[in-house]
Amino acid sequence: MKLLVIEDETKLAEYLQKGLGEEGFVVDAAHNGIDGLHLATEQPYDLIILDGMLPGIDGLAVLAALRQSRQTPVLMLTARAQVEDRVKGLQAGADDYLVKPFAFSELVARIHALLRRGLQAQATPEATVLRMADLELDLLRHRATRAGQRLDLTAKEFNLLSLLLRRQGEVLSRTELASQVWDMNFDSETNVVEVAVRRLRLKLDAPFELPLLHTVRGMGYVLELRPEA
After folding, report:
1. How many CB atoms lie within 10 A of CB 107?
2. Alpha carbons 70 and 220: distance in angstroms, whole number
3. What is the pLDDT of residue 175?
4. Of the candidates 94, 97, 141, 186, which lies 20 to 30 Å from 173 by C-alpha distance?
5. 203-219 per-position pLDDT tens digit
6. Separation between Cα atoms, residue 199 and residue 188, nearest integer Å
7. What pLDDT, in 10s, does the model give residues 187-207?
8. Beta strands 129-132 and 213-216: pairing type?
């Protein structure tokens, strides 16, 4: 999931980028309304975190302009606690509101709630559950099971498995995995992909008889059901 943070307080924006990145999100940031609106209309985002008071163009103006072409979920942040300020934001098209200062855990919970709501609106329940053999990935509940047993995955492991499962049977290179899951250009000195695949395999395959995640030497990795030898 890719998020955009539009926040003029640099330290807060950096804090949100780091914290949400650790939660498994890919996060871009803009520090004024003009840059934020440009990114919001030019790039595909799953959700936008928008500060109400911004230099250049304020948050309500950004939201009004955005709603002319995009229906991306927007969570507004504001230092104003008055009911009328929140009402203005919601009437302008915001999907949720959070007053500063706020608990990071509440922000994350609200983000997940908005994303679940978006998935439910865009697809049937069946389309939000990915399956292969005895493996099941529930995108709405952020839950993975195999043979009925819960897989205790980190956010990055869940995203990695989701990508592999969506493209099951297709060999994905380390470069593509690094780009799609970590939003990074592949660096030959970095073994982040190999480490993540190794940890995922320990949870996904090691406890079970039939392996699903395979290494294709010199090419990458593939999730597929192979006949037993």
Report:
1. 19
2. 36
3. 85
4. 141
5. 999 999 999 999 999 88
6. 20
7. 556 788 899 999 999 999 999
8. unpaired
Residue ranges of the chain whose pLDDT lies below 50: 123-126
**Tokens 């940890």 — which residue?**
199
Question: Which amino acid type is present at position 129?
Answer: V
